[in-house]
Amino acid sequence: QKYDPEAKDPYLSGALATVLWELSLLQKHHDETVSGMASNILSMANLNATQNPVQLSSSNPLEAYKDLSMGRELSKPTHKVSQTLKCKRKRRSKEFVALSTDVLEKADCTVGEDELREKLQSHFAVLRGISENERLRTELNHALSSINMYKEYKKQKKASKKSKKAAKA
């Protein structure tokens, strides 16, 4: 059954079939953690901390990068890749550049907690400002459309009064 986002009944939309199909594809993924997680979800296994294939640690980003290095992440898949996929990957590879661990180690990644908190606060203040600006702009557009509708109403009312006077005369 194909996914139909326009279906009136969500149970008849085919969304579950689509999710299961995508999970079955992820089960064949070349990365062991991805395929393991998809297998666990498909088997409806109860995941607890010991079963979780993705280890979440409290290490800093540089250590996490070393643990899940790009060399291991970008290893070649064991199954044969079609020609069209190779072409797509070539096109995408021009847009994405993976940094080596040497470059990351040389970079100054020591950011104080206070500095990080300050940067995040300023970033989210900007985001709040943007959302507030969008809300105010929406209100302004609504008010302007109401004013324009009122002006149009007045014009029509004047025109109808003139036509009534002309009809009486």
Notes on the structure:
The protein is mostly helical and 169 residues long. The chain folds into three domains: 1-56, no CATH class; 60-110, no CATH class; 118-169. Helices cover 63% and strands 0% of the residues. The chain has helices spanning 15-26, 32-42, 61-67, 70-73, 83-93, 101-106, 113-168. Helix 1 (15-26) crosses helix 2 (32-42). It starts with 14 loop residues before the first helix and ends with a helix.
Order of helices and strands: HHHHHHH
Query: What's the N-to-C terminus distance?
Result: 71 Å
Number of domains: 3
The pLDDT mean sits at 74
> How many strand segments?
0
Radius of gyration: 29 Å
InterPro entries: CCAAT-binding_factor (IPR005612), Nucleolar_cplx-assoc_3 (IPR016903)
Family: Belongs to the CBF/MAK21 family.
GO molecular function: chromatin binding
GO cellular component, one term: nucleolus
List keywords for this structure.
CCAAT-binding factor domain-containing protein, flat, CCAAT-binding_factor, Nucleolar_cplx-assoc_3, 7 helices, mainly alpha, 169 residues, chromatin binding
How would you summarize this macromolecular structure in one to three sentences?
This protein has 169 residues and is mainly alpha-helical. The chain has helices at 15-26, 32-42, 61-67, 70-73, 83-93, 101-106, 113-168. Belongs to the CBF/MAK21 family.
Topology:
Blueprint (H helix, E strand, L loop, with lengths): L14 H12 L5 H11 L18 H7 L2 H4 L9 H11 L7 H6 L6 H56 L1
Helix pairs in contact: 1-2
